[in-house]
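User: Can you help me understand a structure? I only have the sequence.
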Amino acid sequence: MKREWNEAVITKVALAVYVEPNAGKHIHKNRLFHGFVLNEENSIKDYCFSDGRVMRTGGGDLFYLPKHSSYYVKTIERGGCYAINFDAEMDDEPFTVKLRNTDALQKSFKAACGEWRSRNPACGAAAMRALYDAIYHLQKEQERDYMPGDRESLIAPAVEAIERDFTDCGLTVARLAAICAMSEVYFRKIFMHRFGVSPKEYLIRKRMEYAKQLIASGQLALSDIAVLCGYGEPCHFSREFKKRFGVSPNHYQ
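Assistant: Let's start by predicting it. Here is the structure, written out as tokens:
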């Protein structure tokens, strides 16, 4: 990925669309436009280019497809994606960026695709905004790539603690900061810079992903799952789960 994206000038938006799982074209020859693709969380695809390169994109990845590129798409895990095609005074090789937090960008892409589908007069502006939001996130990721390694190493003990003990209900941000021998404010700042989300949010996401696995097993009561995921109160666990997945744990499949 070139650092010149901060100087990219988008001259035309050609399309903004949500592609349903297992839908859309699988073979593309000589693309007419540049494109950004934002995958949903459960989507994994291989892009096999005419020059022999194979690039895998996963959930939450932002993927750039150059104008005039030729490739076919192989689905590994079914999932939808948001795609915006455009013209720009810019060229680059295809690249994928693993975003630390896709919530804001996904909201922007979703809004752009909705406006485009309705043919609202503002659809072009909405899509243009989403594209520049994507470029903004690319720049932020580049900045993080240049973050001094010694600063990241300062929070390594906390990251290890989360990976090892995320089900411990006593694992708090204060405790994580103490493990790293720094103030909570400074700890949050470095953690946000590294992962794009707060340490609390990172911890909750780990617990929720584990909860989905336990629910899928079908072997445990909801109260037991809550405890195993670090929640003393099942109602607290249920609220957090529904907030993130739109359904209660009892109705999750």
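Now, to help you interpret it: The mean pLDDT is 86. Strands lie at 10-19, 27-28, 34-39, 44-49, 54-57, 61-65, 71-77, 81-88, 95-98. Let me know which part you'd like to focus on.
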